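We emphasize that the prediction below concerns an isolated chain of 159 residues; any contacts that depend on oligomerization or on bound cofactors are therefore not represented. The input was used exactly as deposited, without trimming of termini.
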Amino acid sequence: MRKIQGTEYTPLIEQVNPYHQLWKVRVKLDPNEDGIIEYMEEEFDHKPTEDEIKEYVIAHYNKMCNDFIQSGLKFNDETVWLSLENQQNYKMIYDYAMLNDDIFPIRIKLGEVLNPVYHEFETVEEIKGFYNSIIKHINDTLCEYWTIKDSIDWSNYEI
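Result of the prediction step, given as a token string:
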């Protein structure tokens, strides 16, 4: 899979070499800040089946969804890294804080890997707000990508 630039007329599927059965399947990305249209592209050494096309396109959107879940949340203008491990850690901290208020203060690392910022939570309400923002972010992101995947016009991929 690689990123390419194209126009609004770039086909989402095309046979680029009929002698060697080279096909390209593309997923259109949102235009970047310069207005350039980009695509993610996968090459097939055969005419892809409908199932292969759907699998590639859906896998692309699933990856985008997971990437945005992991790095798209901001808390106090700082990135919250939501790897699966961190999600489990935040859930554990939240659960424990709901049962015991002797856990405070709780210190959590936010920000980028090379530029961490530490935030201390002093109350149950603060940690509850933080954890609720995580749940809302995950749910909103899932809903957004379900809508995107449900609205794919598969006729654009007909051969």
